[in-house]
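Researcher: Structure for this, please.
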Amino acid sequence: MTNDKARRDMEALFPGHEKNDALRAAFLAHPDADHYLRLMPDLGCRIPWALVAYGPETGRCQGLVVGGRWSAAGWDLSGRIVLFVQSPTGDSGFLTCQAWEQQLVLIGTVPGSTRHPDRPDAVTLLGHVAELTAAWHADAEITRVWHTWALLHNQPPFPQTYAEIAFGGDVLRGLVVGGTVLADGTWDFGQEFDLMVEPDVILSLDGRRATRCEVLHGTREQGRGRG
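Model: Predicted structure, C-alpha cell format:
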C-alpha cells in the first residue's frame, strides 16, 4: 500500500485525518507552539490531536485543539478552548473561545504519536484500529455478546476505544472489547478488561497491574452521555 493510498484510506475511515495532519504540522512549526506545549505538556503524547468544527452554520471552519480542559473522557468542549486555526491563504494563529460561542463539534482525533518516539506513526496506529475493528465485526459470537451487553448498559453497537497499556517494559496496543464501565460511561482501567491486540487475539488484562494506560483513539467514554 502506498503512502498516498494509506492516507486516503485513513481519511475515509477517520474523517478529518488529512486536515488534522496539516494543522498539526503547521502548529508544531509555529513560533508560539512551545508556549502552548508548556501549558499542555501531554499534548501530542498522552493527549491525542483533536480536530473540531466551529463558527456559525453559514460559515463553519476547522481548528486543532491545543488548550483547554482535558480529562480521561476527552476534551471538554463545553467550556473554554484554545484552537490553532489557519486561513485559506495560509495565515495561522490561535483562537480562544467559549464553546457555546463557536458551536464546537468534534470531527475526529489522531493518536498522539508525533511527540512519542517509541510509538508508531498515526497512519500505522489508525490502520491497526481499522484492522481490529474489521476483525471484531467478522466474529459473530463476539459481536453477539457485545450487542447483548451494550443493550443492557446503554452502550454503542461496536467498540470505540483503542488504548496503549504498559506493564513495565511490555507495551500492548489494542481495541477495548470488554470490561467495567463506570457511571459516567467511561472504561474503568483500574479493573480487569479485555483488549483485542490482534485480529485473532483477545487478552484479559488486570488494569491494577498496569504501569501506564493511554487512550490513543476515541476516548475512555463508550458513547453514553456523561453524568
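Researcher: Any notable elements?
Model: The longest helix spans residues 122-138. The chain has two domains: 3-109, 122-217.
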